[in-house]
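seq/struct pair 1
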Amino acid sequence: MVMTKETEKEPVKLTLRVSDIKPELCVHCAACCTVELHLNNVNSRMRQFYRSVGLTVKPDVGIDKKDCCEETHDCTVVLGPCIHLKEGMVGGVAGYICDVYDQRSQLCQEYNCVAWALAHNTYNSHNELLLKVQKVYDQLHQMRG
C-alpha cells in the first residue's frame, strides 16, 4: 500500500498489538525493510562524510547545513531499502514483495516491530517505524470496512 500525502499528515494514535503484526499487514508496509546502522561515538567529520557519499544520517543537519553539532555522539546511518524488497501488487493492492521470502534471514523471519519496540521501551509516538505501521494498519481496516 502506497502512502499518500493526505494520509501522511493525519495524526496517528498507536493501538498496535504484537498479534496485529501479520504477513497480511507486512506486505503493505515494509517499514522494517529499511536497513539502518546504529553507530556509537561518531564525530562530526564522519557524519559529514556519510552524508557526502549519499547516506542519510540521523539526527539531521542543523542550521549550518553541515551537521547536527560538533559533538561526538551516537547516530543512525540509513542505508536504504533492502536489496530484496520489490514493489508489486499484493491481493490487487500496491504492496511489497521480498524476492527471497522463503530463504530470508532468521532475523527477518522472527521480527515483530511491536514486540521489538516493547522490549526496547520504544513503543511511543516518537517511533517513526511504528507510526508508519499504524497508518498502514488503519488504512487496511478502513478498506475492509
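seq/struct pair 2
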Amino acid sequence: MGTTAALRMVAYIEGDFLSQINATVTPLYQQVVNADGTVNGYSSFWASVRQITLVVGVLACLTYFFFSVEHKGAVGKVARLGIWFLMITFGAAFGFTVMGRIALLAARFEFLFDDWLWIIDPMNQRTVAAAAGLLF
C-alpha cells in the first residue's frame, strides 16, 4: 500500500506538478520554430504575450496569497490584480462547466424528443419507416 502511494505520488509530481511549473518558466520571448526544427529568428508575438500574461498572473496571484506583507501601495495593487486573475479563471472554469452540462442536457432532450417520443424528426426517418411499414 505504501509503495503504491509512493509510486502514484511520483507519477503525479512528474505528470501534473512539474509540467505546470515547466509551462510557467518557458522563455518570455518565443521564437518561431520551422517544421524541420530550425529557428529563423522570427518571433511569435502572441505566444510571447501569452507567456508574459501567464507569468504576471502567477506572480500576482502568489502576491495575493502572501500575507506576511500588508497589502498597501504597490503590493496592494499587484494583489488586486491577482484577485482579478483569480476571478477570471474561476469564472471561465464555471462557464465551461455550465456549457458542458447544457450540452449534456441538449443531448438528453434530443434523445427524448426524437428517439423516444418521436416529436421531432430532423432526418425524416419516421416517415420512411412508416411508409415501409405500410408496404409490408
